[in-house]
Specification:
235 residues, mainly alpha, 2 strands, 60% helix, 5% strand
């Protein structure tokens, strides 16, 4: 039996009817040229479609091993998909209002934080669907923090290409725990989302790098066998 959860259709409708969505529909996706006609909302919908396709994959090979981790961690597969669909529609919706130079109080912690698009997208999520998620605090945190941290892996990849330094276990564990306190569960959300957030990306080497780093510096210590995707598993 499904766990008690939010009305995903209601939330998705609210997102698509929000003023944030209207703004995104008039903003060119920055993965494409200005005259392409490909807007930010096209990216959000494409990533949502990718999430749906990921969970339709047969439970064999790479995806079979990945889904086995969800079962190992007692994560409800249908629920994870619902939450990641919401994340997909919101993860970049704050890009038009991003201002990396501006520092504001973090909407959840009050600590000073740069207005990067992940943070602005979190603020948009709180505005659009926040009241609907109040009865579901665990699901709310999974969604909010995955939105905020969705681009973290690419930042770590850029840091590695510049310095050769891989994130240590403690840093990966801290990131994971922000999303979900169950050991490694939050990282699973990011790993799955990373597979979906490839619309407009010519190169997926950062995705494969992130899986390798998480395997080596985090999951191995927990004795969890993380599969490594090949490009054919991603595209």
């Amino acid at each position: 039996m499904d766990i008690i959860s939010f009305d995903s259709q209601l939330l998705e409708t609210k997102i698509r009817r929000s003023h944030w969505w209207v703004k995104a529909s008039n903003t060119v996706d920055n993965h494409y040229l200005n005259g392409s006609g490909i807007m930010l909302t096209h990216h959000l919908e494409a990533v949502c479609h990718n999430i749906e396709n990921i969970f339709r994959q047969p439970a064999t090979g790479f995806y079979g091993q990945l889904f086995a981790i969800l079962h190992l961690l007692n994560l409800d597969v249908k629920q994870v998909k619902k939450e990641l669909r919401i994340v997909s529609l919101l993860h970049d919706i704050g890009k038009p209002a991003e201002d990396k130079c501006q520092i504001i109080p973090h909407p959840l912690t009050g600590k000073p934080a740069h207005m990067r698009h992940g943070l602005v997208s979190l603020m948009a999520a709180m505005e659009i669907i926040g009241t609907d998620l109040i009865p579901f605090p665990r699901q709310q945190n999974n969604i909010y923090r995955t939105i905020e941290l969705h681009d973290m892996s690419y930042g770590l990849y850029r840091e590695f290409t510049a310095t050769g330094i891989k994130p240590p276990t403690e840093r990966l564990q801290h990131i994971s725990n922000k999303i979900n306190l169950k050991p490694s569960a939050g990282m699973v959300y990011l790993l799955i989302f990373k597979l979906a957030d490839i619309h407009g990306h010519e190169n997926v080497s950062d995705v494969i790098w992130f899986y390798n780093v998480v395997k080596e510096n985090y999951f191995n210590q927990l004795q969890i066998e993380l599969p490594i995707p090949e490009e054919k598993d991603i595209r």
